[in-house]
């Protein structure tokens, strides 16, 4: 019998086969300035260069491409304020089906535009959990579309895990792999691939102090959802789900929180030194290293830069 | 006897050998969104990822590394408002010698900081040609340093030509190679490598309408310097020199000017679609394609992105 980890990882490998000709195998970049300042050798996996500008396209493709033709004919649906919505919209377009997206009406303009640009059918709702759920239920009833959760789905998780699989194939000698954590889709997929490929690697997540449900849940050993989280890292406002949490509890080594100031500093550091655009969520792992200069030294550290969708007219610096 | 072009290109190959272990062999990136909108296959050579954030490091290294030990002992010097100054400062530091930089006192903060960060000796002067020249003369007299011109120097030109050499080695089937033109160092080096490697390629330069001395000189067949040029592309304010101009006249196919609005649009387009940071000068060749959608279709077009040094607190959008 296969171990649980091997079973999960086999699903990552299946996802990889399913999506690889539709996604970008994103570049891995380094910066001698950032290496020097942090005292480590840091490798950045650039999911900001991924289609739709974020890793979310991996999980969305895997989930949409796994549907039967009969299911696909009725379309797909999700609720999301951002990157997952764009990812589902593009994955649906590739499969020639319709995407129905429920979005809070206060979503960033750049994200509304992106989703509309991929031809999705958008239904706006007030930015509350109740409004989102009732609107989503109505859309699903009217369309019969398949609901694809932004993170609490094994298909989505295994799609996100393909990023770490590619990363460790390109840079096998990482000591530590870091990713940000919001709902936990990227983190749980990253942990599955990392521990399956290299059992000795440390998987460490970064989380904003103002949205620290994952760290609290991880330390308590039970799900403790966020209450009115506040952070500039708008991709990390969501709380862990009942599918992502057990995987994280089992395969992640630590979750470390960072201040808003450090997130903005790390983001600016990457923009200025690497000349690449990352969104605040992407900067959270590097913020850990800037806040805790003695935590790691002389390590090979991989960081997954989760996305690059930023409203250029609304920068924090 | 070698032809003039072959002689020049041999110097590019010598430069390549001299500098290659000190510079980045920069990535070539593409964007399906930009390909779709322009109707061509566009390859971007990312000199914004080059050390000091601009192609200028190539020419600076070649010029500094070509000096004798006796010359190096007295240091190197230049006047520059930006990228060339940082490039000379870093090249000098690599050789363990001093860089003396004359900078206009109204230079962008980000560029002052960068030059100071590389340990150069900065002398500020008022932003006039007279002040710059008299200050430079004084610094050279006091130090005995070797003056390295920002563009009107064969060593600098041949260093810049290594970018096109790398580019055509990686993407041999380019139909057109485009670069921005200011003083003409990058353009003349690009033209030498392009025509030597692939005689049938077209080399096309982009220039802001508000600083169009190169186009005027090119059309008239004689040097016509700019009078109070105005453009957001702060790397392109300088006029051609008597060494760059004859090379450009002989080996460049066309120089096309663009509006400020198109430069800003092209810059934003690259930021949003490619998630990389480029400075306005880098956006000028793409601006040609956006302004003139029918000029080229179904071509393989190479564009050298010259640099990525932008003041993040002072963006045009």
Features:
homodimer, 317 residues, alpha/beta, Rossmann fold, six-stranded mixed beta sheet, four-stranded parallel beta sheet, 13 helices, 10 strands, 45% helix, globular
Task: Describe what you observe in this structure.
The structure is a homodimer of 317-residue chains. In chain A, strand 7, helix 9 and strand 8 (202-208) form a beta-alpha-beta unit. Chain A has helices spanning 4-19, 32-38, 56-65, 69-73, 83-94, 109-117, 129-143, 154-170, 185-197, 213-220, 244-251, 260-274, 284-291, and strands at 28-29, 41-46, 76-79, 99-104, 121-125, 146-147, 176-180, 202-208, 254-258, 300-305. In chain A, the strands form 2 sheets. Chain A has a 6-stranded mixed sheet, sandwiched between helices. Chain A folds into 2 domains: 4-55 and 154-305, Rossmann fold; 57-147, Rossmann fold (3-Layer(aba) Sandwich), CATH 3.40.50.1100. Chain A starts with a helix and ends in a 12-residue tail after the last strand. The first copy, chain A, has 13 helices and 10 strands. Chain A is α/β, with parallel strands linked by helices. Chain A is globular. Chains A and B meet through helix 12 of A and helix 12 of B.
SSE run of chain A: HEHEHHEHEHEHEHEHEHHEHHE
Give start-end ranges of low-pLDDT stretches of chain A: none
Oligomer kind: homodimer
Count of domains of chain A: 2
- Remind me, CATH topology of the largest domain in chain A? Rossmann fold
Number of H/I helices of chain A = 13
Summarize the main sheet of chain A. Answer: 6 strands, mixed
Biggest chain-to-chain interface with counts: A-B, 20 and 20 residues
In the CATH scheme, the class of the largest domain in chain A would be Alpha Beta
Q: How many DSSP-defined strands of chain A?
A: 10
Rg calc of chain A: 18 Å
- Termini separation of chain A (Å)? 53 Å
Structural class of chain A: alpha/beta
On the 0 to 100 scale, the average pLDDT of chain A is 96
Q: Which architecture of the largest domain in chain A does the CATH hierarchy give at level 2?
A: 3-Layer(aba) Sandwich
**Strand order in space, largest sheet of chain A:** 1-2-10-7-8-9
What does the overall shape of chain A look like?
globular
Helical amount among residues of chain A, as a percent range? Answer: 40-55%
Strand composition percent of chain A: 15-25%
